[in-house]
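Ticket #4471: structure export looks truncated?
Reporter: QA, pipeline team
Priority: medium

Steps to reproduce: submit the single chain below to the structure queue and open the exported record.
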Amino acid sequence: MTNTLVHLSEQNFIASGGFCRCYRHPDVPDQCIKIQTDDTKKARSRLKMDLAYYKKLHSRQSDLRYIADYLGTCQTNLGQGHSYQCVINGDGAVSETLEHCLEHQHPEIELILQELHRMAIQLLNERIIISDIHPNNILIQVVEGLPPKPVFVDGIGDKVFITIQNVIKSQVHAKIIRRWNRFINSLENTYPELRSPISELYLDKKHIQA
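Actual output as written to the record:
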């Protein structure tokens, strides 16, 4: 936690979600700050579960290459904020969402889909649960000379109160596969013109490394 007050303005605004607004750090371009906009019991519980899951990932030294990592709290002119890695392209711009890439027929969309599958397999084997798999929660980082990289920026963790099954590897694997395949099925239905490459993105037990 830093004592330096970070001044945020609409110029720094990136996006908003159900419980918070996200701003790019004005002095540290590769960081973003989420400010809670909802102080309900549900919102506080959601934040508590989010931070607890990041703590769990850090304690077991999980490979977070496809996750925008949590960096700690900070103080801003809009109240307490929570800092995360900001996903930025090679030109310094904040990366676009997967939804934007799909809707605007990104020229490398098939390569993006292939990299999505690589990400899914890695998260499966790291046993990293995503509660809200949505194309708006995935940013596509574009850096010249490298394949486009999908990164989850929201929806990390398991938003359930009964988590005993999450200590059993086989149950965690099954949950990750089930949720991912539900997401892929929704993409097939939403983007029928891409059904052929999307159909290659499903997961099953053969993707689990021994």
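Status: closed, not a bug. The export was complete when the record was re-opened. Leaving a note from the reviewer for reference: The chain is about 35% helix and 20% strand.
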